[in-house]
Amino acid sequence: MASDDTSAISGRSLQRGDARASDWRYDCLDDAARLARRYLDGLRDRPVRAKAGLGELRAVLARPLTDDGEEPSVIVESLARDVDPGLVASGGPRYFGFVIGGAVPAAVAADWLVSAWDQNGGGFVASPALSVVEEVAAGWVRELLGVPASSGVGFVTGGQMANFTCLAAARHAVLRDASWDVEAHGLHGAPRVRVLAGEYAHVTVGVACRLLGLGQLLDVVPADGQGRMRADALRGALANGADTPTIVCAQAGEINTGAFDPFVDIARTCREHRAWLHIDGAFGLWAAASPRRRPLLAGAEQANSWATDGHKWLNVPYDCGIAIVADPPAHRAAMTSTQAYVPAHADDVPYGFDWTPEFSRRARGVTVYAALRQLGRHGLADLVDRCCDHAQLIAGRLAAEPGIEILNDVVLNQVLVRFGDDDALTNTVIERVQRDGVCWLAGSTFRGQSVMRISVVGWQTTPADAHRSADAIITAARTANG
């Protein structure tokens, strides 16, 4: 913290227009960089769990709001100190919960620059440079994921809004083909849009449908034992709804098992019935970056839209989702905003709000740009492969232990574990591992049973971390089993 009185800039001095206010940049930003570096350098060794509970955090953070404000350096120092006990080391090498990745260094640094530049990523006129950065990043994403080069790409908050954006484009297209303009006339009086999704579709697909006025009660297509949509069941379901505007939601990377729907058969069936095929691939779509895992996505390139996250396997900071639509006119029609004060622009001029629900937004694509420049094609492929290999290593270690069962085929980065074929024991082991703090993983329910879900997506995880985590899980299981 600065001791020189000339750099003590409070809210009162800013209100006065004090000339010294510019000095805050050289104090609190340097402090933030120092404190952030200290946190990041300690990620490997700190317990993964949070050390403070709700009451403790409220007691230290819920301070009275002052009348005159405080010095920025004081705020940054105390914020870092007070928040630290309540942080979960989700960016570290042994966090395996909720498919949350870390953040590669170039993306973290780029994110700081995005905040410093403070640009509206909504359109070229507001930020020419960052609009072009996002345009380049979108092109790289299309190439790496193997989707059509002409697809529209929007950088949104996460998988929820990526699904929303893609399904909004789908809604436009299927109703357009039924001679209904949903943007002009709404849904009242429109033909019913039928939405089919697999038995284990992610909750964000249903929420997106609800927000779009399509209803959350989707037509459910049965899945197999790994959570994959059954193509034969989809075929039968579509045959029963001829001439109805239809959207099919498939999945790349089931949230529990990591399984992939049979896209070749699903895409063929959707074409036969003129149904829009959307693929929710929050983390699974990044398998396309790996030559070893790319066959899991065979046929996915034939879909009409795809949703994924950057803040999962690409390892950029929160938040970053990516919505991709193969039909740019449908994408733009569902999303674009027009106002008298917004300049008219040609289709090839990058305007972010043509592709996202937000008129004003952070330039999220900058972190994607930075991460992909750091990783390159080979680095991204290696990141995907390493995480999958670590998942298989953990699964192998656990499967060799009596009383521990691996429930899924570990085809990607997800490991589904059950202990003693018992719900209570499984939940007890999860709680013990979380409390121990060597690693952190979450519980879930799959096919009516309690399970431990291990998700490996962090760039820092090593084989040693995988072994150490497996040891911690085995120890917790032995202790819980008496």
Question: Can you offer a commentary on this structure?
Answer:
The termini are far apart. The protein has helices spanning 11-15, 24-41, 54-61, 72-83, 105-117, 128-145, 159-176, 182-185, 203-211, 231-239, 263-272, 328-335, 365-399, 423-436, 463-480, and strands at residues 152-156, 194-198, 219-221, 246-251, 276-280, 305-309, 321-325, 404-406, 414-419, 442-446, 449-455. The chain is 41% helix and 11% strand. The strands form two sheets. Strands 1-7-6-5-4-2-3 form a seven-stranded mixed β-sheet, sandwiched between helices. The protein contains 15 helices and eleven strands. The chain has a domain at 108-371: Type I PLP-dependent aspartate aminotransferase-like (Major domain) (Aspartate Aminotransferase, domain 2, 3-Layer(aba) Sandwich), CATH 3.40.640. The chain is globular, with a radius of gyration of 24 Å. α5 (105-117) runs antiparallel to α13. The chain is an alpha/beta fold. InterPro entries: Aromatic_deC, PyrdxlP-dep_de-COase, PyrdxlP-dep_Trfase, PyrdxlP-dep_Trfase_major, PyrdxlP-dep_Trfase_small. This is Pyridoxal-dependent decarboxylase. One of its GO terms (biological process) is carboxylic acid metabolic process. Belongs to the group II decarboxylase family. Its cofactor is pyridoxal 5'-phosphate.
